[in-house]
Write a structure and sequence with these properties.
Layout (H helix, E strand, L loop, with lengths): L2 E8 L2 H8 L7 E8 L18 E8 L9 H15 L6 E4 L3 E4 L2 E13 L2 E11 L16 H5 L5 H15 L6 H13 L9 E4 L5 E9 L5 E5 L5 E4 L5 E4 L2 E3 L1
Parallel strand pairs: 1-2
Antiparallel strand pairs: 2-3, 3-7, 4-5, 5-6, 6-7, 8-9, 8-12, 9-10, 10-11, 12-13
Helix pairs in contact: 2-4, 2-5
Amino acid sequence: MPKIILLQETPSTNDFLKRNASTLESGTLIVAYSQTAGRGQKGNSWEAEPGKNITFSLLIKKPKLDVKDQFYMSEAVSLAIVDALEKYAAGFNIKWPNDIYYGDHKIGGILIEHSLNSEGIDYTIIGVGVNINQQVFISGAPNPVSLTQITGDFYDMNIITEEFGELLERYCDFDGSHKQLDDLHKRYLKKLYRYDGKPHQFVLPDGTLFLATIKAVAPDGTLTLLHDGDNSHHDYHFKEIGFVINRVRFL
């Protein structure tokens, strides 16, 4: 069971942990009723109605994970969130690299930040935002969905936060073995959104659209696509490629 610290309001639970990491123990979970400046990948904002959604960050000190293998942490966190949600409904997937989806709709986002030293990863901060009881989204985000919209039920935020925290701590307990990492990666691929052997539409940052099939995700997180037409393989890093979902472009 992680140690939970509740905050009424903070700009960012990740930033709170970064300021206090040296004095807090590994496994500390910072939960915010209201997060006023929540961030996603590459600085994207995260809409969360106060008290209606999960917004928290977990501190993991000195994980048994090489710097070159840090994407496995992203895989572990994504799978923990999917497992937690699938207690209540089926059909959740991970959109590369680590957005949590239900069908073509986004229910959760993850921001992972590592602090490195000469010995490797000193500590990792895992920021999670998941839409739970919110019924109306007003930010203009094109495809949000919440757990209550999926199931029609409302949830006790204290209980569901504890469930998420326990699964996260369990999934992020690396033992340093190659078998654990291999098994984790296989499970990640099984839950990967649009990893179905079929071509889907993608978009480059300059707006170029093309059809391609997801072929692989490398241990460093690189996405390999097989381009339709010339059957050429191309590798992409974060934000070098976007998904086109219901004609909306997601970079």
